Amino acid sequence: MTIIKKGEKAPLFNIKDQNAKDVNLEDFKGKKVILSSHPLAFTAVCTDQMRSLERNFDRIQEKGETVVIGLSIDPQPSKKAWASAINIDKVRLASDFFPLGKVAKAYGIFNEENSASKRANIIIDEEGIVKWSKEYPQTELPDIEEVIKNL
User: Fold this and answer.
1) Sheet of 92-95: strands edge to edge?
2) Catalytic residue among 46, 69, 83, 123
3) Quick check: is 66 in a domain?
4) Which positions are catalytic residues (predicted)?
5) Residue 5 in domain
6) pLDDT, tens digit (0-9, with 9 covering 90-100), for 61-109
7) Which of 58, 90, 105, 126 holds its CA 20 to 30 A away from the CA of 65?
């Protein structure tokens, strides 16, 4: 399965974030969305990826109101503990735990080999259309400048 492509309609989803609040794509109509997928919480590159989004949150907002979502298959309580441990306040850490990887599968970013999300960034425009997408090697930290440039 390949990552969702520019111009495709973003599949709808409704999952929970680290605070057990709904993360429903339909609620974000009129805003941009960065869906930043990472394999697993509490791992080095994933931690750096989420911290990079958190550190650059205000710069991201300068490109227009944007919802920033870190997506992985970790259960919601794990996402809550991780957010606290790495000081994530602005980025929503969404749990794609049950059914396992449903959102990742819909976006073509589920790794069947290890039953986890792939590392990827997907930008969805205000109308729910994919504006940009890129998959990264599991060990590579996504370039935040590239993500911001593509907003």
Assistant:
1) 22-24, 14-16, 92-95, 66-72, 32-37, 119-124, 130-136
2) 46
3) yes
4) 46 (cysteine sulfenic acid (-soh) intermediate)
5) no
6) 999 999 999 999 999 999 999 999 999 999 999 999 999 999 999 999 9
7) 105
